[in-house]
Amino acid sequence: MAISISVVLLLVILAVIFLRNGGLKVSHALVCLLLGFYLAGTSIAPTIHSGITATAEIVSGLRP
To answer: What is the top-level taxon of the source organism (predicted)?
Structure first.
C-alpha cells in the first residue's frame, strides 16, 4: 500500500507540473492516464466516483 500511495503522489505532482506548464504532450497524457489507473485502485476511488456523479446530476438538472 505504501508503494501505491507514493506512486500516486508522484503522478499527481507530475500531472500538476505538466498542466501548469501549459502544454500537454503525449508523455504528459500518459502520466495522467497512469494517475487515473492508480487512483482507481486506491481507497479514495469511491469518493471520487460519488463526487463526479453528484456533479453530473447537478449539471444535467440545469436548464438554460
So the answer is: Bacteria
Nearest to 34 by CA among 9, 53, 61: 9
Average pLDDT in the 45-49 region?
A: 82
Nearest to 31 by CA among 9, 10, 48, 15: 15
For 23, left (φ over 0), alpha (ψ -120 to 50), or beta? Answer: beta
pTM (2 d.p.): 0.53
Tell me: pLDDT of 64 over 80.
no
Contact 31, 11 (CB under 8 A): yes
Residue spans of alpha helices (H) in the chain:
2-21, 26-40, 45-61
